[in-house]
C-alpha cells in the first residue's frame, strides 16, 4: 500500500517553556502529525515528559498525536496515554517480553497501535504481530536524544519491513537524523511517515518551521 509522505515534527526539539505555542506553530507551519517522544531515563538514557503534559497540550492542535513511548514497562501506562488524547501509541519491541499483549491493550483502548525497533533490532520480531499494528517505527538513531546522526544501515531494514508488510495498511515511520538530505533515502526504501525534531524546530519561529517542513517535504517528493 502506498501512502502520501507525511511529516511528523518531534516536540522533543521544541521549547518546553512554551510547548502549547510551539505545537500551534508547527501545526500552522504544515505539520501532518505531532510526534511526542516519551522517555523514562530507564529504557533510554534521558527523561522527557509523560501523559499529564500530553493532556495539557492536546488542545493546541487537532492533528494526530503520535506518541512514541520509550519507556519500560509500558503496559501500566497505556491507559493514561490513551486518556491524555493520544491517537497512535507506539511501544518498543525491546521494552517488554509481551509485545503481542501490549499491542492488544492499545487497540482495546481504541487507539492505533505501533511498534518501534531500535537500529540493532532485526525486523523479524514484527512477523507474528503484523495483524495487530497500524505502524512500524524504525529508529534511524539510537533513541534518547534529538540531533544525532542518521544510521544508514536502517535504509535496508526499511526495505525489508516494506516487503514483510506487503499489502497491509501499515505505515512505515522513521525517526532520528531525518533532514532534507536523508529523507529521500528512506522514502525511496518505503518509509511514509518522517519524524524530524531538530531539522523542523531550528530557527525557533513559525516561519522557519514552515520553511523547514517544506524543505523536508520537497526533498521527500524527489525520491
Ligand atoms: C529520539 C527521538 C526522536 C528525536 C528525533 O529518541 O525518538 O524523535 O527527537 O530528533 P532528530 O530529528 O533531531 O534526530
Ligand atoms: Zn520518536
Brief summary of the model shown:
The chain is an alpha/beta fold and 223 residues long. The protein contains eight helices and eight strands. The chain has an eight-stranded parallel beta sheet.
Key descriptive features of the protein:
TIM Barrel; 32% helix; globular; binds D-xylitol-5-phosphate; 19% strand; 8-stranded parallel beta sheet; alpha/beta
Structural account:
This protein has 8 helices and 8 strands; from the N terminus they run E-H-E-H-E-H-E-H-E-E-H-E-H-E-H-H. It has 223 residues and is α/β, with parallel strands linked by helices. The protein has one domain (6-221): Aldolase class I (TIM Barrel), CATH 3.20.20. An 8-stranded parallel beta sheet has the order 1-8-7-6-5-4-3-2. Helix 6 (183-189) links the parallel strand 7 (171-175) and strand 8 (193-196). Helix 6 (183-189) crosses helix 8. The two termini are 17 Å apart. The mean pLDDT is 98. The structure holds D-xylitol-5-phosphate and zinc ion (ZN).
Write the layout of secondary structure elements.
Layout: E1 6-9, H1 19-28, E2 33-39, H2 51-57, E3 64-70, H3 78-83, E4 88-92, H4 99-108, E5 112-117, E6 135-139, H5 154-165, E7 171-175, H6 183-189, E8 193-196, H7 198-201, H8 206-221
Parallel strand pairs: 1-8, 2-3, 3-4, 4-5, 5-6, 6-7, 7-8
Helix pairs in contact: 6-8
The structure holds D-xylitol-5-phosphate and zinc ion (ZN).
Instruction: Give start-end ranges of low-pLDDT stretches.
Output: none
Shape: globular
The CATH architecture term is Alpha-Beta Barrel
Judged by helices, strands and strand pairing, the structural class is alpha/beta
Share in β-strands: 15-25%
Q: What is the average per-residue confidence, as pLDDT, rounded to a whole number?
A: 98
| Number of helices in the DSSP assignment | 8
Q: What is the succession of H and E elements? A: EHEHEHEHEEHEHEHH
Helix content: 25-40%
Please give the order of strands in the largest beta sheet: 1-8-7-6-5-4-3-2
Main sheet characteristics:
8 strands, parallel
Name given to the CATH homologous superfamily: Aldolase class I
Total beta strands: 8
How many angstroms does the end-to-end distance come to?
17 Å
Q: Ions, cofactors, ligands: which are bound?
A: D-xylitol-5-phosphate, zinc ion
Amino acid at each position: 500500500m502506498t501512502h502520501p509522505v507525511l511529516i511528523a515534527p518531534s516536540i522533543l526539539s521544541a521549547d518546553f517553556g512554551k510547548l502549547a505555542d510551539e505545537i500551534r506553530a508547527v501545526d500552522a507551519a504544515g505539520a501532518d502529525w505531532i510526534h511526542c517522544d516519551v522517555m523514562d531515563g530507564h529504557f533510554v538514557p534521558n527523561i522527557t515528559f509523560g501523559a499529564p503534559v500530553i493532556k495539557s497540550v492536546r488542545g493546541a492542535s487537532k492533528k494526530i498525536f503520535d506518541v512514541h513511548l520509550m519507556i519500560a514497562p509500558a503496559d501500566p501506562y497505556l491507559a493514561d496515554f490513551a486518556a491524555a488524547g493520544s491517537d497512535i501509541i507506539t511501544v518498543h519491541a525491546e521494552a517488554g517480553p509481551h509485545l503481542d499483549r501490549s499491542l492488544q491493550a492499545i487497540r482495546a483502548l481504541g487507539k492505533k497501535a505501533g511498534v518501534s525497533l531500535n537500529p540493532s533490532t532485526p525486523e523479524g520480531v514484527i512477523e507474528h504481530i503484523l495483524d495487530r499494528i497500524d505502524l512500524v517505527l524504525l529508529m534511524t538513531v539510537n533513541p534518547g536524544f534529538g540531533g544525532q546522526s542518521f544510521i544508514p544501515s536502517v535504509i535496508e531494514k526499511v526495505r525489508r519491513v516494506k516487503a514483510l508488510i506487503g499489502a497491509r495498511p501499515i505505515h512505515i515511520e522513521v525517526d532520528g537524523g531525518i533532514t532534507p538530505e536523508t529523507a529521500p533515502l528512506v522514502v525511496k526504501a518505503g518509509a511514509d511517515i518522517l519524524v524530524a525534531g531538530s531539522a523542523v524546530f531550528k530557527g525557533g519561529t513559525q516561519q522557519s518551521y514552515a520553511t523547514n517542513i517544506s524543505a523536508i517535504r520537497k526533498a521527500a517528493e524527489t525520491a
